[in-house]
């Protein structure tokens, strides 16, 4: 249950751009494309605005495109898998100090 909640929280963080969520290594492994931009361009779906990126969650055309050109059954599965693999940078990296 905790894993499902954490994946949902990770994939919904507003400051995570889709391009960050889908690095080239992920795209090459699971899709027919080198990177996320190339995939979007091939789909002919415009994702330039924040509104479009929110609406993609329920877009049947996009989900069908994902199903046809990736290893996933649809957009939600692709996004969930990417969120599970994504490493969020920590805000502050404190240097390691030895305490004597």
TrEMBL record:
Protein name: Uncharacterized protein
């Amino acid at each position: 249950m905790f894993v499902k909640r954490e994946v949902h929280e990770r994939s919904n963080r507003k400051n995570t751009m889709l391009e960050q969520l889908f690095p080239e290594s992920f795209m090459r492994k699971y899709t027919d494309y080198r990177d996320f931009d190339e995939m979007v361009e091939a789909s002919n779906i415009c994702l330039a605005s924040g509104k479009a990126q929110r609406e993609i969650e329920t877009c049947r055309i996009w989900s069908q495109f994902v199903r046809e050109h990736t290893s996933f059954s649809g957009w939600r599965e692709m996004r969930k898998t990417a969120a599970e693999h994504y490493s969020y940078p920590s805000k502050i990296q404190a240097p390691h100090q030895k305490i004597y």
